[in-house]
Amino acid sequence: MGQHQLPNTPIPKQILDLDLTNEKLLEIGTGLGLIGKYLQNKCDYYGIDNDLDIINNNIYLTQNTVYHISNDSLPFKDNYFDIIIIDRKSTRLNSSH
Fold this sequence. Notes:
Number of helices: 3
Radius of gyration: 13 Å
Structural class: alpha/beta
Strand content: 15-25%
Helix content: 10-25%
Number of strands: 4
């Protein structure tokens, strides 16, 4: 798969079944933007990732709001989001332990 191309992967059923009307949703570990593209007109979508190349490709493909994070601090107030999703298969969490 080349740069600036969304993967041809199905959206998980748990996400397809969510009622996201008027919800603020955070996706942790956005990958190339497949879920973000699906959700962009269904909710108030935000994404975070720690890979700048992936973030830039994601923004190019989806025009979504995606933030770069490189530490434990998030650029949002506590309890800002109604729903937080994470794809544990594709997200690496750094640990200082």
